[in-house]
Amino acid sequence: MKISSFAGKPAEPWMLASIPGLVAAYYTGIPNAENPEEKVVFGTSGHRGTSLKNTFNELHILAICQAICLFRAEQKTDGPLFIGMDTHALSVPAFATAMEVLAANGVQIMISQDDEFTPTPAVSHAILTYNRGRSSGFADGIIITPSHNPPDDGGFKYNPPSGGPAPGSATTWIENRANEILLAKLKGVKRIPLAEAMQTSSTHRYDYLNTYVNDLDNIIDMEAIAHSGLKIGVDALGGAGMHYWEPIAERYGLNVTVFNKTPDPTFAFMPVDWDGQIRMDPSSEYAMQNLIGLKDQFDISVACDTDYDRHGIVTRKAGLIPPNHYLSVMVDYLFQHRPQWPAKFMVGKTVVSSQMIDRVSARLGRSVYEVPVGFKWYADGLLDGSLGFCGEESAGASFARMNGEVWTTDKDGMIAALLSAEIMAVTKEDPGALYDELTSALGTSWYDRIEAVATTAQKQLLGKIPADQFDQKQLAGENITSIITNAPGNGASIGGLKVSTQNGWFAARPSGTEEIYKIYAESFESEAHLKQIMAEAQGMVDERIGDG
After folding, report:
1. Residue 287 sits in the same domain as residue 176
2. I need a labelling partner for 490 at 20 to 30 A (CA). Which of 108, 117, 225, 309 fits?
3. How far is CA 433 from CA 229, 315, 317, in A?
4. Which of 163, 143, 162 is nearest to 154 (CA)?
5. One Gene Ontology cellular component annotation (predicted)?
6. pLDDT the model gives residue 523
């Protein structure tokens, strides 16, 4: 993985997106419905693309929204639809398009009270709050976001009544129907003007912000944080939850200082990420240079990505805590400080997350539920009360309320960030230091991830590669103990493969949102052993996907 010479530095003016150009292309672009590159494609979490490449524009959103309306009818989902959006430039026009179609179809739409941007967790929280105790008339939702992707991108995802990302059966149905609508040149799409859609009796205002903020003390020990007097720094990253932090501080008496709380669709304030692109990734040491630079001014500093479903934690001693480290600390802390949680609660982790989580869970006497990448695999378990905590190595997590009931079934960066302050307030220790204590007891982990450019064809090959295609017996000098293409927890395909030895493993899978594939690897032996695993892993993958 070649690191750009611009990584971690302020963005140059020529790197900034042309917002007028993006929006113009959204309205004027005409995707070729027969070109796989320009079709509707729901990846790990919704349809993503850019208007500059005809992969995300008005015609896509018209088709997707009509398909969602048809899917709702098919599923007999007739409650309100909660809709949120982040601060990417393409989110506002996509919201306008969605309103025109949803209102024309008579959907009861719940939009933010003051035309405020709405984070992903606030939408999931709203769906579950509405559906609690109901036996019919269930609500669902739409979130318009490409997550932490670059400013040129747009994204659109559907959350069914479970409140979390839609399962593959739903996204496949919506994707296929949307592409049929595109091929038919939008025949059957219902649409009314935006002004009419905003004023129709089926459009309602909902106070996402205060409903979410006022409920936080049911999942986080806000009193402990307040009494501790901790100085908390927040880089709001100009994201959908940027205006949530000050109401949180006021409501619970916290000492919080917020930076970058004004939306800027170019995200010009962001340091450049590893590959020379602007990317709002709170787990990237390059993208988080601003917050890392302020670490000595605060007891703990936090950030969330653009739709606020991912977290980044910075402390004075540890700096930016790697996601796997913090996930391990969260598991260790939560299962010892939530006495009302039931004994049956399992720990959810993905196949590419650190095995330190397995070791921590074993010490706690908790079972691990290991699934493919994608938070959709956790929604049912969080909802039915079998999972108490779920996390992804990409800095996404959610967990149960104090009383063991479901909070959200989608990732929630805000509760993960606030939990870091609770951990410091209660334990009087830096979460980074707590991770060091885990390594002393359970072993030291060396973990890394690399990304490599891959065509659509190469990604498809990797996603369907059979385990028996590999005849290697050893990896980095150790005997291979397993090669799997399905997750142990639920048996679902991992969309790639995972190879394990006694002291290490690697997993390779194509990205669902970018033209790259990823190799994740971990060693409990040494950094040199990790590098050897990664080098051999990339050779094994490249040999089989070739030129696509």
Report:
1. no
2. 309
3. 20, 10, 8
4. 143
5. cytosol
6. 98
One domain for residues 454 and 437: no
Cα separation of the two ends of the chain: 20
CATH number (domain holding residue 107): 3.40.120.10
Tell me which of 402, 426, 442 is where a domain ends.
Answer: 442
Give me the half-sphere count of Cα atoms (radius 13 Å) on the Cβ side of residue 425: 21
Is 7 within a domain? no
Token pair listed for 196:
């009419």
Q: What are 61's strand-pairing partners? A: none
* Cβ-based neighbours of 489, under 8 Å, separated by 6 or more: 348, 368, 369, 370, 371, 377
- Assess if residue 161 is contained within a domain: yes
Given 91, 147, 162, 328, the catalytic residue: 147
Vertex 318, ends 314 and 321: CA angle to 5°? 55
- Residue whose structure tokens are 């990448």: 373
In a shared domain, residues 352 and 484: no
Question: With contact defined as beta carbons under 8 Å apart, do 68 and 171 qualify?
Answer: no
Maximum alpha-carbon separation in the chain = 67
Angle at 124 between CA 284 and CA 277, to 5 degrees: 25
Q: What would the two tokens of residue 261 be? A: 């709380």
- Cβ count within 10 A of residue 339: 7
Tokens of 171: 């996204």
Is 246 found in the same domain as 185?
no
CB hemisphere CA count around 351 (13 angstroms)? 30
Kindly report, residue by residue over 24-83, the tens digit of the pLDDT: 999 999 999 999 989 999 987 799 999 999 999 999 999 999 999 999 999 999 999 999
Angle, alpha carbons 390-224-346 (nearest 5°) = 20
241 and 359 co-located in one domain: yes
412 beta partners: none
The reported pLDDT for the residue numbered 548 is 52
pTM beyond 0.85: the answer is yes
Do 164 and 101 belong together in one domain?
yes
Q: Check if 147 is active-site.
A: yes
Helix or strand (DSSP H, E) at 368? strand 368-371
Answer yes or no: do 398 and 530 share one domain. no
Q: What is the pLDDT of residue 19?
A: 97
Amino acid letter, residue 7: A
Q: Is residue 9 part of a domain?
A: no
What was the pLDDT predicted at 547?
Answer: 58
Q: Which of 389, 423, 442 is the last residue of a domain?
A: 442
Res 464: pLDDT: 84
What is the per-residue pLDDT across 126-178, written as a single tens digit (0 to 9) for each?
999 999 999 999 999 999 999 999 999 999 999 999 999 999 999 999 999 99
Determine the structural domain holding residue 531 and report its residue range: 446-545
Same domain flag for 193 and 50: yes
Residue 219: inside a domain = no
Angle at 8 between CA 321 and CA 450, to 5 degrees: 65
Q: Where are the alpha helices (DSSP H) in 29-163?
A: 58-75, 91-104, 120-131
Phi-psi category of residue 433: left, alpha or beta, with phi > 0 → left and psi -120 to 50 → alpha: alpha
Ranges of the chain whose pLDDT falls below 50: none
- The H or E element that residue 420 is part of is helix 413-427
- Crossing angle (nearest 10°) for helices 413-427 and 120-131: 90
